Amino acid sequence: MATQHSRTAARIMMAPAVFVLLVWMLVPLSMTLWFSFRQYLPLRGGDQGFVGFDNFVRFISSSAFWPSVQTTLFIVGGILLITVVLGILLALLLDQPMWGQGVVRILVIAPFFVMPTVSALVWKNMFMDPTNGLLSHLWRAFGADPVVWLSDVPTFSIILIVSWQWLPFATLILLTAVQSLDSEQLEAAEMDGAPPLRRFAEIILPHLARAITIVVLIQTIFLLSIFAEIFVTTGGAFGTRTLTYLIYQRVLESQNVGLGSAGGVYAIILANIVALFLMRIVGKNLDA
Question: What is the dihedral of CA 242, 246, 249, 254, to 10 degrees?
């Protein structure tokens, strides 16, 4: 049992790390808020003074703002759907005894350690290239015309690329949950004559609820700021401009740091709204 002295010592030892973490978060946030109320043009005279909420009004009144929010949510939702569904299937598959099981698990998890830029370049040039891509050769083998992925189905292409990178993370979390499942409960259900789908729906899936919640929450936090994959592949064209990419474009086009900072504040608000929504809807599983 911890004493008052040990708790005080623990707080003292944790204080430097907590201080660094707060500074790491609060300084960029404070600078973003500061610049969002000013007209700061780094290549045209620097700080032009306080402009109030003008940057916020200009950013939200842009015709590209709401479409970028919708695109962001659509891409995040598509990636979550693919990674959770395929993650469950892969976790169940990897839990089965097989030859070279350890090697197979390493190969499945490996894409998560590939940098987003490298991952996007590989998919763009090796798989989705309409002339020399592997998918194009596969299409021709079946007598079909190759798909120009990044212009014909650009949003789905982005979802596919990012899902490939995040699927190992979901699989790893869900595999850990699957391995903690009581095998005796499954064996008892099988002896009672329960079919595989019913065992999955009534035993396995409820057991995975917490793991699914963790996957959804963590991935959403990172996916709301998706940028590198879009920058490398479509450049925000063909309806793939997310809110993060819109902020980048606005700063690049107008060279107005204040306008981009206002967009950053909107991105923070969106992330908090989505996080609160997820915590209320799926986060309840953490307390179950």
Answer: 180
- Nearest CA to 258 out of 47, 29, 26, 61 is that of 47
**142 φ, ψ to 5°?**
-95, 10
Measured CA to CA, the distance from residue 78 to residue 216 in angstroms comes to 12
Distance separating alpha carbons of residues 249 and 235, to the nearest angstrom = 10
- The burial of 159, by beta-carbon neighbours within 10 Å (0-12 exposed, 13-18 middle, 19 or more buried), is given as buried
Under 8 Å between Cβ of 187 and 107 = no
Q: Shortest CA distance to 149 belongs to which of 160, 138, 164?
A: 160
For the chain, which residues make up each domain, given as ranges?
Answer: 65-240
Q: Which two tokens stand for residue 236?
A: 């925000």
What is the CATH T-level fold of the domain 65-240, as seen in this structure?
MetI-like fold (1.10.3720)
User: Which pLDDT band holds residue 126 (cuts at 50, 70, 90)?
Assistant: confident
First CA to last CA across the chain, in angstroms? 27
Most confident of 38-42, 45-49, 107-111, 153-157: 153-157
Q: Which of 113-122, 154-163, 245-254, 261-270 is predicted least confidently? A: 245-254
What whole-number distance in Å separates Cα of residue 262 and Cα of residue 258?
Answer: 6
The sign of the torsion formed by the CA atoms of 274, 202, 175, 164 equals negative
Question: Looking at residue 145, what DSSP letter applies?
Answer: P
0.70 exceeded by the pTM? yes
Gap between the Cα atoms of 100 and 98, Å rounded:
6
